[in-house]
Amino acid sequence: MAIYDPTKTPTDNYDTHTHLNDDQLFHDVPAYIGRANEFRVMEMNVVGYNAQSNERALEISNNHDNIYAVLGFQPEDTKDFDDQAFITLEQQLQQPKVVGVGETGLDYYWETTAHDAQIAAFKKHLELAKKFDLPVIIHNRDAFEDVYKILKDSGVKKGVMHSFSGTPEQAKAFIDLGMHISFSGVVSFKKAEEVREAAKTIPLDRLLVETDAPYLAPTPYRGKTNEPALVKFVIDSLAETLEMSAKDLSDVTRGNAHRLFLNHE
């Protein structure tokens, strides 16, 4: 028996950014996939962020239908993104179930990695995205100006601003560069009014949803371990903000994900 009444979610969902490769979830991947399917989350991208998680993303995607890998080094792990890591990543990106480069980008909030190292790694990821014509998945925290300039200068025209938490103006700037905007559980947080205002400005054909599991669990599960099944609550919150039905928003975001990641019309 499904743990969520399927008649209330009469369409399938695509979680475009989850970390089943994280230690908090990797110990029982089949169970998390099974529960996601009960919530009609039938497709997902497992996103890498360092060497080990990239290997795990490939393993999960190769062992399960309708699950895809995105590979890269997140800002705080760019200290390990040396020449050999670049070569390995370049080879991995050519595997058939890889649908994106990332997550990559800049994070000036934690200050765990020098800005110069983050920028150099970000630029290398953008080179790979361009070389293999793959969308780039971008992590941006407190670094809007640098992320925007580097992305604009790169000439990369397709990708995702992951777990967007910026302003309407910032969203428009990235959309003008060709990016999609992905919303996570943050959009459901009580104090995230600015994020919801930004959501209202996004063209429907640029909207995506994600969990970023095991992080950023949506209301009413905030503070607990997140998982792909809970993307349903992201959709519910975002649909309410946009004054759409959850079904219509599921159809829109799934279709956008298919076009961007799977080249499906």
Provide the gyration radius in Å.
Answer: 17 Å
Structural class: alpha/beta
Regarding quaternary structure, what we see is: single chain
Helix count from the secondary structure assignment:
10
| Share of residues in strands | 15-25%
Helix fraction, binned, reads 40-55%
Average pLDDT reading: 95
Sum up the overall morphology in one term.
globular
Outline:
42% of the residues lie in helices and 17% in strands. It has 265 residues and is α/β, with parallel strands linked by helices. It has an eight-stranded parallel beta sheet with strand order 1-2-3-4-5-6-7-8, with helices on both faces.
How would you summarize the topology of this molecule?
Layout (H helix, E strand, L loop, with lengths): L12 E6 L4 H4 L2 H10 L2 E7 L3 H13 L3 E5 L11 H10 L5 E10 L7 H18 L3 E6 L2 H11 L4 E3 L6 H9 L2 E5 L9 H7 L7 E3 L21 H12 L3 H17 L3
Parallel strand pairs: 1-2, 2-3, 3-4, 4-5, 5-6, 6-7, 7-8
Helix pairs in contact: 5-6, 7-8, 9-10
